[in-house]
């Protein structure tokens, strides 16, 4: 795993006041969480792809995607500053299209996609995700 991402995740996991010791990085996180632009972008991506594919998604699946995309992808990449949010949204949309299509195929007809199904789908589709190109979590 990339050292800088490892440190960002470790700091995100800790109490908010102690996060990202450098004042510049703390200011970035505070601004991001209060303004909510990143959260809105993730929600919009999930809702757009759901609408496009007319996928029946349970709220736990939506929240699972939201929390993981926001906190494991968007915040670390924005703190590091290596990719703009607009560019990142394209990757998120692409991966959500893949994941929701795969999850819908796994789900029994007439049933909504669950958080559990999303977890299984992500595990099975891992190597095909464009977000993996950022090496946020190392090789695997």
Characterize the structure shown:
By secondary structure, the protein is mostly helical. It has one domain (3-134). 69% of the residues lie in helices and 0% in strands. The protein is built from six helices and no strands. It has helices at 3-13, 23-35, 37-53, 59-80, 85-106, 115-125. α3 crosses α4, α4 (59-80) packs across α6 and α5 (85-106) packs across α6 (115-125). The radius of gyration is 15 Å and the shape is globular.
Q: Tags for this entry?
A:
140 residues, mainly alpha, 6 helices, 0% strand, globular
Helix content: 55-70%
The main sheet comes to: none
Q: Could you tell me the radius of gyration in angstroms?
A: 15 Å
Tell how many strands the DSSP assignment holds.
Answer: 0
Write the layout of secondary structure elements.
Blueprint: H1 3-13, H2 23-35, H3 37-53, H4 59-80, H5 85-106, H6 115-125
Helix pairs in contact: 1-4, 3-4, 3-5, 4-6, 5-6
Quick recap:
The protein has helices at residues 3-13, 23-35, 37-53, 59-80, 85-106, 115-125. It is mainly alpha-helical and 140 residues long.
